[in-house]
Every structure is written in structure tokens, then in C-alpha cells.
């Protein structure tokens, strides 16, 4: 069991596999031809709201979104 | 180093709650029910049906046929769509990190991580090529291959100009990168775009 196996360069730089994979997918989507490109780019947009819980109550949520605020 | 892990693990789990699972190459075709567990359940709790374990709900793995099948069944899936679902083909060439891997019916069971590259599906005389951004390929012993990609599209859906612009941009970023993270990102950009370029021109 090699525990010091040659790690991929992105892991050596501190990136996780998911970040690497999403980055690759993103770059590929950016190279598509027009109608597919716009649908593909909309696919990776995320919108979520996060709230921390303190003393059993949620605090004000922060919204993280790629869509512009309406 | 971890050879003893299965033994230690099976000792640690509570008696009869889990049936001993050998390596997946030996998984039987029918789902076994742990008779000892069911028996001890019934003796202590006769009124309630013994609970079913998740494996009882799963369809058992189809047995490996003794003769090599003539066609390979592939399932190519993306997170939002499935390109091929149980399609019978002659061969697929998969862009694994260790190089282009050709998969024929009867291929040894393999798990391969994919790098950005071209997936070509050969059916008779037709070859359809898809560019895959990354993912995994699971080839099972019964000639079923599951290819899971994060993003994939037919090669003719890509715009050559955008690819070349991207390649030039990232090569430039690579030479001007300072931190490790920037270098890694630029390197990834260069890799992906050069693979795309090769796919479009090759």
C-alpha cells in the first residue's frame, strides 16, 4: 500500500478532487457551441441560503447565489 | 497493512447483525438472508417481522456468464442526463488517467478514473465520439460498463475558436502564475484545453 504515492499536481497544491472535477467540467462547458453553451452554463448555477444556529435558534440566513438578486 | 482490517471489523460488529460479505468478485447471485439473525430475532421478538437489511431490497448482481458475451452493454450517465442506457456496443475507448483504454466484451473488472478526453463508442462500423470532462468508468465482470462523467458532449458540439482562445489564455496564465493554487488551476486549464484541441483536430 503506497502511502507516499505520487499525488496528482492539483492535490499537491491543496485542491480536492471535487474542486478539480468541477473546474474541468466548467472549462469544458465554456467551450461548447452556442445553444448548448447557455443551457450548460445555467446548469452549474447554484443558489442556496445558509444560516448558522446559535442556542437552538437560526440566525439571519446568508444567501449565496450565482443568479443576480431580484 | 490493512489485511487484518476485515477480520477486526467483523469481530467488532455485533453478533449476527450483519452477514459476512466476501469480496465483490464472490458475491452470490441470490441475496442471502442471514438465517441465524432471523432465528434469534424470532425467538426474542416473535410478534414483529424481522427487519430487512438494505441488501434484501437490492437486485442481486447478475452472475458472470461462463462464455464471453458478444456485445458490451454500456451505460453512460451524466449528473443531469443519461447518454446511453443499457446500449449494446462492440467496443468503447475510455480516456483513463493511465491512457486510452479500450474495453471489449469480456474485459477484466476494472475501475478507472477518467481524465478530460475523448470517449469513443464503436458499434459495427459507426464510431461516435464524446468529449468527457472527467469521471469514472466501472467495468464489471459480466461485460457491463458504467461510465460516469461530470460533463460530456459530442465532439462536434464544441467551438474550435473558443478552445484555442482558452488554450492561449491558460498557457499565458501558467507562465505568469505565482502561487501553487494558481499554477495548478492554470495547469488544469492547459490540460483540458489541449485535450479538447486534440479531440477537435485529431
Oligomer: heterodimer
Helix content of chain B: 25-40%
Question: How would you describe the shape of chain A?
Answer: flat
**Counted beta strands of chain A:** 4
The portion of residues assigned to helices of chain A is: 40-55%
Spatial separation of the terminal alpha carbons of chain B: 45 Å
Task: State the low-pLDDT regions of chain A, or none.
Answer: none
Which structural class is indicated by helix and strand composition of chain A? alpha+beta
Instruction: Describe the global form of chain B.
Output: extended
CATH superfamily of the domain at 67-154 in chain B: F0F1 ATP synthase delta/epsilon subunit, N-terminal
What strand line-up does the widest sheet of chain A have? 1-4
For the record, the count of structural domains of chain A works out to: 1
InterPro entries (chain B): ATP_synth_F1_dsu/esu (IPR001469), ATP_synth_F1_dsu/esu_N (IPR020546), ATPsynth_dsu/esu_N (IPR036771)
Domain ATP synthase F1 complex delta/epsilon subunit N-terminal (chain B): 72-144
Protein name (chain B): ATP synthase F1 complex delta/epsilon subunit N-terminal domain-containing protein
Subcellular location (chain B): Mitochondrion inner membrane
Protein traits:
A: 70 residues, alpha+beta, two-stranded antiparallel ribbon, 4 strands, 17% strand, B: 202 residues, ATP Synthase, domain 1, five-stranded mixed β-sheet, five-stranded antiparallel β-sheet, 29% strand
Walkthrough of the structure:
The complex is a heterodimer of chains A (70) and B (202). Chain A is α+β, with helices and mostly antiparallel strands and 70 residues long. Helices cover 40% and strands 17% of the residues of chain A. Chain A has 3 helices and 4 strands. The radius of gyration of chain A is 18 Å and the shape is flat. Chain B is an alpha+beta fold and 202 residues long. Among the domains of chain B are: 67-154, Sandwich (ATP Synthase, domain 1), CATH 2.60.15.10; 157-199. Chain B has a 5-stranded mixed beta sheet with strand order 2-1-9-8-5, with no helix packed on it. A 5-stranded antiparallel beta sheet of chain B has the order 4-3-6-7-10. The radius of gyration of chain B is 23 Å and the shape is extended. Chain B starts with a helix and ends with a helix. The interface between A and B is medium-sized, with 25 and 28 residues.
